[in-house]
Amino acid sequence: MTSTIEPTTAQEACPGNACGNPPQGRATSAARGALDRPSELQRTVDVSGLVDSEGGLLDRAIFTDRLLYSQELRRVFAPSWLFLAHTDQFHKPGDFFTTYMGEDPVIVTMDKNRRIKAYLNSCRHRGARVCRADFGQTRNFTCTYHGWSYDLEGRLVSVPNESGYPDSFRREDWGLVEVPHVESYHGLIFGTWNPEPVSLRESLGDMAWYLDAMLDHDPEGTVVVGGVHKWVLDGNWKLAAEQFATDWYHVNMSHASALMVLSPTGKGSKDEIVHRTGRQYVDPNGHGAGFPVHPKNRFDADTVHHWMDYDALRERLGDARVEGPVTTGHATVFPNFSYLPVNGSIRIWHPKGPDEMEVWAWTIVDKSMPGEVREAQRLYNLRTFGPTGIFEQDDGENWSECQAIAHGFITNGVALNYQMGMGSEREDGIHPGTTSELYSDAAGRSFYARWRTLMNTPAWHEETQ
């Protein structure tokens, strides 16, 4: 069965009233009253001097400063399209999955009309979560604090001791705060708090071509296998998102031992593998993707490799994608959704303060894959990039190491170098958009340029102040 994903109008366009503006729509004066949040609570910093994307320099304060982190939540995360879930997690009305948009908890669910909607997971009475399960199936979301209950359309449907409230109290004023826009792309569900965003497809731009290399192998699309793995890492979320956008450079050094384990001889990869050539996609919206290019690129898991029809892939996706981003590579959709095509790994880097992130990872496979092939891909993903994966451990160690010393007074003032590949960006005539060399910081520079732009641009909730 398929679900309908369509933009929706939130009951309140200023979610959670975090911006201090009166909400738009039905819940106006009754829900807001005389509250008026002072602007001093939302101090902003001009970050122009912290990111020199043109010169390839970065100030470490962007990873450590608490004020900048708070600004990120409202200017980077709140206006952006953020990954929520996969459509395969919803098959019938009442199916739900709880996640985060930045640090805001949200419920993603299928309503009675089979539409996918998302709501702030916070009771309008005292603010506790109305759903504490990770996923499941329900008819209503009921707060365990005082019993306020909401239906699948976010309406407040039950209030214990309702007769104790004044005559002006109306249930319709106190429904769950709805994420105003929810859209999907090839099974990936995204949402944004922005009441008037560009469409998800427009936001992706040329990145869609690279995404399709993973998501559009055949008309049946993809499904999730093995649930969602979650773990916590020390380190700023941008360290992970940036690496997946731009960094093939670390592979041979950081993952040397893992490459030895996976090589047939146990002595490591052949020289032609170690020194592979390829391209790196550089997107003006901060997305990025890197991938080796070779006519014999293949999926790493043998069972998957032997099942895959590479000729059919070439016919559907073209030679450029099959020889590039279909298999080995890395990518990030700005700000914090990343994926690895070779093992079907998709993941979100949830920010948990400037010094910590929570990683949520799914394994997705082609729906047409038979059971034994799905299982081979799932196990290969766990072996390499699961919470105990031999590559994943290396990456987490690197990010925590970078973060551990970044708070030092002298250390924090020493600029970081992002100059690899400067001047190599061009349109190569094969891959859409601008690309650089495989070993390059170009997508990283673009990632931080986009971050700088959003950090210096008032979001919708600030424009009327």
Automatic annotation (TrEMBL):
<feature type="compositionally biased region" description="Polar residues">
    <location>
        <begin position="1"/>
        <end position="11"/>
    </location>
</feature>
<dbReference type="InterPro" id="IPR017941">
    <property type="entry name" value="Rieske_2Fe-2S"/>
</dbReference>
<dbReference type="Pfam" id="PF00848">
    <property type="entry name" value="Ring_hydroxyl_A"/>
</dbReference>
<keyword id="KW-0560">Oxidoreductase</keyword>
<keyword id="KW-0223">Dioxygenase</keyword>
<keyword id="KW-0001">2Fe-2S</keyword>
<dbReference type="GO" id="GO:0005506">
    <property type="term" value="F:iron ion binding"/>
</dbReference>
<dbReference type="InterPro" id="IPR001663">
    <property type="entry name" value="Rng_hydr_dOase-A"/>
</dbReference>
<feature type="domain" description="Rieske">
    <location>
        <begin position="81"/>
        <end position="179"/>
    </location>
</feature>
<dbReference type="GO" id="GO:0051537">
    <property type="term" value="F:2 iron, 2 sulfur cluster binding"/>
</dbReference>
<dbReference type="Pfam" id="PF00355">
    <property type="entry name" value="Rieske"/>
</dbReference>
<dbReference type="GO" id="GO:0004497">
    <property type="term" value="F:monooxygenase activity"/>
</dbReference>
<keyword id="KW-0520">NAD</keyword>
<dbReference type="InterPro" id="IPR036922">
    <property type="entry name" value="Rieske_2Fe-2S_sf"/>
</dbReference>
<comment type="similarity">
    <text>Belongs to the bacterial ring-hydroxylating dioxygenase alpha subunit family.</text>
</comment>
<dbReference type="InterPro" id="IPR015881">
    <property type="entry name" value="ARHD_Rieske_2Fe_2S"/>
</dbReference>
<protein>
    <submittedName>
        <fullName>Aromatic ring-hydroxylating dioxygenase subunit alpha</fullName>
    </submittedName>
</protein>
<dbReference type="InterPro" id="IPR015879">
    <property type="entry name" value="Ring_hydroxy_dOase_asu_C_dom"/>
</dbReference>
<feature type="region of interest" description="Disordered">
    <location>
        <begin position="1"/>
        <end position="38"/>
    </location>
</feature>
<keyword id="KW-0411">Iron-sulfur</keyword>
<keyword id="KW-0058">Aromatic hydrocarbons catabolism</keyword>
<keyword id="KW-0479">Metal-binding</keyword>
<dbReference type="GO" id="GO:0051213">
    <property type="term" value="F:dioxygenase activity"/>
</dbReference>
<dbReference type="GO" id="GO:0016705">
    <property type="term" value="F:oxidoreductase activity, acting on paired donors, with incorporation or reduction of molecular oxygen"/>
</dbReference>
<keyword id="KW-0408">Iron</keyword>
<dbReference type="InterPro" id="IPR043266">
    <property type="entry name" value="RHO_NdoB-like_C"/>
</dbReference>
